[in-house]
């Protein structure tokens, strides 16, 4: 009887918490036109969509683009409130140039929002040992080290406004699949750094928000590019490695890329989460976006390690093909 009572009290408290949270999250900030936001990675994808969204809402936006084409497109399509700038997060000089430009523009008001969206996927559907150290370094330079450099550079402007930092992590930052290790390593790092930053910046009034998307349809997940990159990775493997894994493994890896493309979700949901983190009166510290993260990656991350590994093999066998040499030994 006491157990039932405890369960009833827990259920009431949980429902109350959800109701109060839902009510608080409906609130929106006033005078958005007084706020300035810097977004990295605006050439395409989430960053591009968010820059356009915030421009329509009346915020002043600095949209960091890697390419001149990205700068030109946003300059042509958006209002004068949006200022696209060429910015490479892997180069400190480029980050410093952006800082000086934004600092001069915002003055004593400071920077309200910083969205660290720039990211690359690196190798896809490739086993851990196929990736070189350079493959890991390339992904870390953009997804993690570049993000850290941008945050450390712009913190003085964020402190002035007691602003918000939005870091794009991933469901792959919760659960690392056996393939695509460089990307998962970088996103685990984003999660760790964001948690440290959130707890350390609280006393300065700066809020830190993590976005955890699942599989969404953006240029980073372009099927043709992923398949081409997989072929290039396969071709550089040694004859011994090719024999060990086999052509059947390579085809299964390609099939997994094609299968994943069918389950890609609409990127608008991620942009909605980013907007809420920047514009809500009571934003969440963490946004889990996508049915795959919510119903697969999160539950698996909560399981004991061996059970989580078993669940992935059972639920997503196409994501874990078996090398030829392992089949021979079974």
UniProtKB/TrEMBL annotation:
Any GO molecular function: oxidoreductase activity
Keyword Oxidoreductase part of the UniProt annotation: yes
Keywords from the named record: Oxidoreductase
Domain of life: Eukaryota
PROSITE patterns: ADH_SHORT
A biological process term (GO) from this entry: steroid metabolic process
Zinc in keyword set: no
Database matches in InterPro entries: NAD(P)-bd_dom_sf (IPR036291), Sc_DH/Rdtase_CS (IPR020904), SDR_fam (IPR002347)
Xref: Pfam families: adh_short
PANTHER family: 3BETA-HYDROXYSTEROID DEHYDROGENASE DHS-16, SHORT-CHAIN DEHYDROGENASE/REDUCTASE FAMILY 9C
Record-stated family: Belongs to the short-chain dehydrogenases/reductases (SDR) family.
Protein name in UniProt: Retinol dehydrogenase 16-like
Species this protein is from: Branchiostoma belcheri (Amphioxus)
Upper lineage: Eukaryota, Metazoa, Chordata, Cephalochordata, Leptocardii
Gene name linked to the record: LOC109468361
């Amino acid at each position: 009887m006491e157990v039932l009572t405890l369960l009833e009290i827990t259920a009431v408290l949980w429902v109350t918490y959800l109701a109060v949270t839902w009510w608080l999250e409906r609130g929106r900030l006033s005078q958005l036109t007084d706020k300035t936001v810097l977004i990295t990675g605006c050439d395409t994808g989430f960053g591009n969509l968010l820059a356009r969204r915030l421009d329509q809402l009346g915020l002043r936006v600095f949209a960091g683009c890697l390419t001149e084409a990205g700068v030109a497109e946003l300059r042509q399509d958006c209002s004068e409130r949006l200022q696209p700038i060429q910015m490479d997060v892997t180069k400190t000089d480029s980050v410093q140039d952006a800082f000086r430009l934004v600092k001069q523009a915002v003055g004593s008001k400071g920077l309200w929002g910083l969205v660290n969206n720039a990211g690359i996927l690196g190798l896809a559907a490739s086993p851990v040992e196929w990736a070189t150290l350079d493959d890991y370094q390339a992904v870390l330079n953009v997804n993690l080290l570049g993000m850290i450099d941008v945050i450390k550079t712009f913190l003085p402007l964020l402190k002035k406004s007691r602003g918000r930092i939005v870091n794009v992590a991933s469901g792959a930052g919760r659960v690392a699949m056996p393939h695509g290790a460089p990307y998962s390593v970088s996103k685990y790092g984003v999660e760790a750094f964001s948690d440290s930053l959130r707890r350390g910046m609280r006393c300065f009034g700066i809020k830190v928000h993590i976005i955890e998307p699942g599989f969404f349809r953006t240029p980073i997940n372009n099927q043709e590019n992923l398949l081409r990159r997989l072929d290039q990775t396969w071709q550089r493997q040694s004859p011994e490695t090719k024999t060990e894994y086999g052509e059947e493994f390579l085809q299964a890896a390609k099939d997994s890329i094609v299968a994943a493309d069918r389950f890609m979700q609409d990127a608008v949901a991620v942009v909605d989460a980013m907007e809420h983190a920047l514009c809500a009166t009571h934003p969440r510290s963490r946004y889990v976006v996508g049915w795959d993260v919510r119903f697969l990656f999160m539950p698996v991350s909560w399981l004991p390690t061996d059970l989580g590994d078993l669940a992935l093999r059972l639920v997503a066998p196409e994501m874990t093909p078996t090398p030829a040499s392992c089949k021979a030994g079974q």
